[in-house]
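About this split. The held-out portion is used to measure sequence recovery: a designer receives only the structure tokens and must propose an amino acid at every position. Recovery is the fraction of positions where the proposal matches the reference. Here is one held-out target exactly as it appears in the evaluation file.
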């Protein structure tokens, strides 16, 4: 018996990167997968084929998780396909604008918060209500960042959204623990996903970027996927409100040279 037999997971942004890796890792442990995407239908369809090649069922659902009506529709479609949802992994997000606060347009700031914070909040809301109506239990996994803790100049939009997501996770853990729902963060450092496409394409640039990481390398998406499996499984039944940092030791470097 595998760790996630009989479970159904919704993964936002599962068309590439960490979302795809988590979909494949969970499918490899027996879960059926709801593959959410916003723009990349081809990538989502490719993920579906890979999940099915592992012997699991998958459906592809296009939805903008910033829009509550679309989130509701996504859950309806998932439940129509599989009857229930047991795992909600909020992975979809956007990167920092690179704009300093003095020059930051409020609409641009709001756009990042709506994607990185409001979207996960809406998905959590509808997942919790679904699980509550079905006897409780379940797993919420939010993909945050080391920037939930460590700020970066030119990234106020991103850092604020990820810091808020960390506290949303902690707040929800208090609210839903008695229902048997756990809520945890994965906080990656540098991962070789489309967020870091230049590092994937240019080995010299990648080597330059990883010098601040004690392990001197970036993570592979599959490494994040393995942690997602743990947090989705019964092995993590007593873990809630936690942030799991996967950064090759990057955050330990903050005090060096002081």
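Reference sequence for scoring:
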């Amino acid at each position: 018996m595998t760790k996630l037999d009989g479970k159904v997971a919704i993964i936002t942004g599962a068309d590439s990167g960490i979302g795809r890796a988590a979909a494949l890792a969970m499918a490899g442990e027996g879960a059926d997968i709801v593959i959410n995407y916003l723009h990349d239908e081809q990538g989502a369809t490719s993920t579906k084929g890979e999940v099915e090649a592992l012997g699991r069922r998958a459906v592809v659902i296009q939805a903008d998780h910033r829009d509550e009506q679309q989130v509701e529709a996504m859950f309806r479609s998932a439940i129509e396909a599989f009857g229930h949802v047991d795992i909600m992994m909020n992975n979809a997000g956007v990167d920092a604008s690179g704009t300093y606060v003095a020059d930051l347009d409020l609409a641009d700031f709001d756009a990042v918060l709506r994607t990185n914070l409001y979207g996960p909040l809406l998905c959590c809301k509808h997942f919790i209500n679904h699980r509550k109506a079905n006897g409780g239990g379940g797993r919420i996994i939010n993909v945050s960042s080391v920037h939930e803790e460590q700020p970066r100049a030119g990234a106020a939009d991103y850092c604020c959204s990820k810091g808020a997501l960390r506290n949303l996770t902690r707040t929800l853990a208090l609210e839903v623990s008695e229902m048997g729902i756990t809520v945890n963060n994965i906080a990656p450092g540098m991962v070789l996903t489309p967020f870091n496409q230049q590092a994937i394409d240019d080995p010299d640039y990648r080597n330059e970027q990883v010098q601040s990481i004690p392990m001197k390398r970036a993570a592979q998406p599959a490494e994040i996927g393995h942690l997602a499996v743990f947090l989705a499984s019964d092995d993590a039944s007593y873990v809630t409100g936690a942030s799991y940092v996967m950064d090759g030791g990057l955050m330990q470097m903050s005090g060096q040279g002081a």
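Annotator remark: The chain has eight helices and seven strands.
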